Amino acid sequence: RTPANGSPGNDSPDKKRVKRPYQTKTFKVELSFAARIPMSAIAMALKGQESEHTQEAIRVIDIILRQHSSKQGCLLVRQSFFHNNPSNFVDLGGGVMGCRGFHSSFRATQSGLSLNIDVSTTMIVKPGPVVDFLLANQKVDHPNKIDWAKAKRALKNLRIKTSPANTEYKIVGLSERNCYEQMFSLKQRNGGNGDPEAIEISVYDYFVKNRGIELRYSGDFPCINVGKPRRPTYFPIELCQLVPLQRYTKSLSTLQRSSLVEKSRQKPQERMSVLSDVLKRSSYDTEPMLKACGISIAQGFTQVSGRVLQAPKLKAGNGEDIFTRNGRWNFNNKRLARACVVDRWAVVNFSARCNTMNLVNDLIKCGGMKGITVEKPHIVIEENGSMRRAPAPKRVEDMFEQVKSKLPGAPKFLLCILAERKNSDVYGPWKRKCLADFGIVTQCVAPTRVNDQYLTNVLLKINAKLGGMNSLLQIEMSPSIPLVSKVPTLILGMDVSHGSPGQSDIPSIAAVVGSREWPLVSKYRASVRSQSPKLEMIDSLFKPQGTDDDGLVRECLIDFYTSSGKRKPDQIIIFRDGVSESQFNQVLNIELDQIIEACKFLDENWNPKFTLIVAQKNHHTKFFIPGSPDNVPPGTVVDNAVCHPRNYDFYMCAHAGMIGTTRPTHYHILHDEIHFAADDLQDLVHSLSYVYQRSTTAISVVSPICYAHLAAAQVAQFIKFDEMSETSSSQGGGHTSAGSAPVQELPRLHEKVRSSMFFC
């Protein structure tokens, strides 16, 4: 037995042998019957007869896959499995590594029970000496420079092995004092009478003198604590090694994220051969539990037939045709479809080293070629040199004082030049000031290489924000979109974005974008609200307050009515992003109900027809062309073999996959009162991938969803949340339950910009 104020690790081996009989523990294990799951539910589901047992039965065989990988010592992340093989690791910097593994799960499809297998990547903590991890994590070159408060947060809950005993422990914290000074009571037998007496000894002296272990550098640094709350157990830091395959669950920096994407992408052929190899090596056919379920797995990929839809025709200014090739086009020698005038504007420069007048002149010249009249700016305002080191909100405040004093009235547009391309801390406060406080359209730039392409891209964004249109679909101008052009139709895009992993107290942001100026389907406006952290269902679609409704949908309905010649939509098409199959019923029963209530609240007798479509990007289905190194061409649709046995769903690759392997978007039609023909609906979805005003390419998911994502991300910057990812534990501890605490409200947009495409 050891005293309450702790011991450093194990006692000598002979003592341990004497004590062992007292330390034996008896565990009682109780097995209780939970449920009988009929595996026949899978066979019924394949015939299109789903029951409440279908998901459970598939879950059972998925668990068998997990158990199979667990026996091989894999790290399990839901249905993805990662082997401890250094050839699968890539260094991302900061003590973090990308680990490549594979996803494997069963799905009921039209061609029978299918095994869905794909390459998967997760982040792990770099194994090895704890000190090396801390140096890399804090980007310092000597242990003296380590911030130990940060280190404590980074190490909490990680597992280590200690030498020389090679025992595994979980880190609970660090010692208050350094290794030289951290004392504990050590009981020693005293002389002949055999009574043990406690002596105070430092952790350093104990390991060096009593255990005879040489410590080179641990003396000046805190010890690692692996004990219980009231009985700490300390080890000098140099005796501790992080064990492999421990997930890193904090958010990555921009650099780490781009490094992960770059190092984990694979061309189609490489991915195919890796997956074939994984299937052979995983030896599922030897798994007795799968055999007992009567499941054997074919060695080859499933063959499916797909169609390639023709790209929709686009129109530029003066009714000119835009020719698309491989899902891409350009505005060379063309004018924008509806060009705006950039007048009453100014430039502000937040200490960026850039020739501002050259940039302005280039913009004016490039704008002229695209049909945009860019007048000379009223003034170029440089930031006061004394403000450069000030906090971001102060810098923005000071800049706005200059804007107010140097301009005759409120400007219509402000071009803001930032010094950093990514993660500028001025960005959020600046956007909030412009969009929420003053109602001024603004465009931020951080020019590095200014060429014609760069200027055109900036002008596309400015034109869309100021109410112009860059290109239009021929079928919305003529108007001849089946079912949509005949009667007033509102298109909604809905998305919820959450804080980074481990940030458990950052509100989630819900955004709804709605189309305007029917019969157009290219113009949108957005409404955004905050809600409880990690809550996926949107809780503010309909918010009655007395005789008023403060919900997201009402704003879109009223804007559609006022912008579409005082017509109410008779049809509403909803695109919902980011929900899994287990949440489909909630989307139908909760969200769709709220949208219907918002309509009824405006007019009791109004009964629009609804079509509800869920778009999923986060899945593991990929398509390959047999015998070709290329990705599937843009416009590829697959609606057979690997789709649901009964429900209506399809996969679409609208975009050209330039790097890596194309990930199709999986569209599920959950509800369709408008009664689209399958081909018409697929054509509409395809066309909506071509109306994204920020780029001259088809995008991978319909534009309204992309806009909802952008709007949520931009407005989230308004409230500068503390960087909580540092403080949460590495294993993602400390989550609040969804819907528990009051949530910080987002500032509302100024009425002048509320209906603009500010998110472009």
Automatic annotation (TrEMBL):
Region (Disordered): 1-21, 726-745
SMART domains assigned: DUF1785, Piwi
Piwi domain span: 413-720
Molecular-function GO terms, alphabetical: RNA binding
Key words, A-Z: RNA-mediated gene silencing
Domain PAZ per the UniProt entry, residue ranges: 129-244
Entries under Pfam families matching the protein: ArgoL1, ArgoL2, ArgoN, PAZ, Piwi
Comp. bias intervals (Polar residues): 1-10
GO BP terms: regulatory ncRNA-mediated gene silencing
Entry superkingdom: Eukaryota
Main function: Probably involved in the RNA silencing pathway. May bind to short RNAs such as microRNAs (miRNAs) or short interfering RNAs (siRNAs), and represses the translation of mRNAs which are complementary to them.
Family listed: Belongs to the argonaute family. Ago subfamily.
The protein's name in its UniProt record: Piwi domain-containing protein
Organism: Aegilops tauschii subsp. strangulata
Lineage: Eukaryota, Viridiplantae, Streptophyta, Embryophyta, Tracheophyta
